[in-house]
Write a structure and sequence with these properties.
Elements lengths: L1 E6 L4 E5 L6 H12 L6 E5 L2 E2 L6 H4 L6 E6 L23 H9 L2 H10 L9 H9 L2 H29 L6 H26 L11 E6 L2 E7 L7 E3 H6 L12 E5 L1 E16 L2 E10 L6 E3 L1 H6 L3 E3 L4 E4 L4 E4 L13 H5 L10 E4 L23 H11 L5 H10 L4 H10 L1
Parallel strand pairs: 1-5, 7-12, 8-11
Antiparallel strand pairs: 1-2, 3-4, 3-5, 6-7, 6-10, 8-12, 9-10, 9-16, 10-11, 13-14, 14-15
């Protein structure tokens, strides 16, 4: 196993030792590395002095643990030998002395970040801020979290080792081995994606363009998966079109849940770029969208969704309008949590039902519908609670679970790896 020793003269030493090694032999190894005579060494583990005749395993020292070395001759200025020890829960006995000892040299802090398990300055800036900023409560909290993470990883490793020596005819053990192999493949695939396809983890912003409906500027959602062009009742009223609503075309839109179709506006002018085009709309009683430019009008006006140039071409290319960047899209359009609570997601129906089935086409199609908010479910909260118990912050847990679509094992691997 590998242990980490931090000396009084701000040196970090990593040693590969046997669990049954005696403390005296460890001191002999440290004498070579640190040039501190064996007789002047005092080793502390969890705040307690380690006697020469004792063995590491007997003291409870495990792989990845941190041991403090104090020189009896030089001592530690300004603090007792026990000040740099750790409590059983991983927190420091004297957090201020512990912080000062690490902070004295920036090189020492960098080395410590590299040696301590699960700590990386690039992915865990909180610990560096707690040490350099003097936030002792935060430092203690983070040290406890690292301790819990090490314990969780150690238990996982012990389970894996136990499976290696399990009875090959034990069905349950073989099932666990199969699951472990499968999870390893998933983790490798995830790591490869992070390296070679990181954009797959980024948020995809839907396509919006600037339009004018009956002279009123709007942000139009371009959705080639929606069968019909849709306008909400509030948007139609704002554009002065509600007076043209034909209620004979009332019905129900079926998608994720269902939304009432209030009727149809047969024709009204829309302005794309500097050109006016006639457009017809299905009016929905849906508060979670304003205007959706669907496949019917995309076909009618020979539109091209050009993702290479990031523009919408209308009329076979006579007009080109750019898709809006995320900063120009109203924040409530991007509020997926709010949208997912609405019955029809983005507002595009997967099927349009009507009293007059010959007048309004029916069918099914995908429409960019939000898939529901998993964070509202009791199962999601249970996963959060389970990972928080391992020492992770709630915000980080939620972010990891959302990143992996609620997969608890992948989220845990991501958090441990961070």
């Amino acid at each position: 196993m590998r242990i980490t020793v931090m000396t009084a003269d701000e040196q970090i030493i990593g040693l590969d030792v046997d669990p049954d090694e005696s403390v005296e032999n460890v001191k002999a190894l440290l004498e070579v590395e640190s040039r501190v005579p064996l007789q002047q060494q005092q080793l502390l583990y969890n705040g307690k002095e380690m006697r020469n005749h004792e063995k590491l395993s007997g003291l409870g020292v495990r792989d990845g643990d941190l041991i403090m070395m104090v020189s009896n001759a030089a001592g530690v200025s300004g603090s007792s030998s026990n000040d740099l020890g750790l409590n059983p829960d991983g927190s420091a006995l004297n957090p201020e002395a512990f912080r000062q000892q690490i902070q004295r040299d920036s090189n020492l802090m960098a080395q410590l970040f590299q040696v301590l398990p699960l700590v990386n300055p690039q992915t865990d800036p909180e610990l560096a801020q707690a040490i350099s900023g003097g936030d002792l409560n935060k430092l203690q909290e983070l040290l406890r979290q690292r301790h819990l993470q090490r314990e969780a990883m150690r238990r996982k490793e012990e389970e894996e080792i136990a499976l290696l020596y399990a009875d090959p005819f034990d069905v349950e053990a073989q099932r666990k081995i199969e699951a472990a192999i499968r999870q390893k493949g998933i983790d490798e695939n995830w790591a490869a994606a992070l390296e070679y396809n990181p954009e797959a983890f980024a948020r995809v912003v839907m396509l919006y363009v600037d339009m004018e409906v009956n002279g009123v500027p709007i942000k139009a959602f371009v959705d080639s998966g929606a069968q019909a062009t849709i306008i909400s009742k509030s948007c139609a009223e704002r554009c002065g079109l509600l007076r043209l609503l034909d209620q004979r075309y009332r019905g129900v839109a079926h998608g994720v849940g269902q939304t009432e179709i209030l009727g149809r506006i047969h024709v009204a002018p829309i302005k794309i770029g500097n050109v006016f085009y006639p457009c017809s709309f299905t009016v929905l009683d849906s508060p979670n969208m304003d205007f959706l430019f669907g496949l019917d009008m995309l076909r009618k006006h020979q539109c091209i969704i050009d993702l290479k140039e990031n523009v919408l071409r209308v009329g076979g290319g006579e007009v080109s309008v750019p898709f809006l960047p995320e900063k120009d899209i109203p924040s409530h359009f991007l509020d997926e949590g709010r949208y997912s609570k609405q019955p029809s997601g983005s507002g595009a129906p997967a099927a349009l039902g009507s009293k007059d089935s010959s007048a309004v086409p029916t069918g099914s199609q995908s429409s960019g519908v939000a898939q529901g908010n998993p964070s509202e479910s009791p199962e999601f909260e249970a996963k959060i609670a389970k990972l928080v118990e391992l020492g992770f912050e709630r915000a980080a847990v939620i972010q990891a679970l959302k990143l992996f679509n609620g997969n608890e094992e992948q989220a845990a691997s991501f958090l441990f790896g961070g």
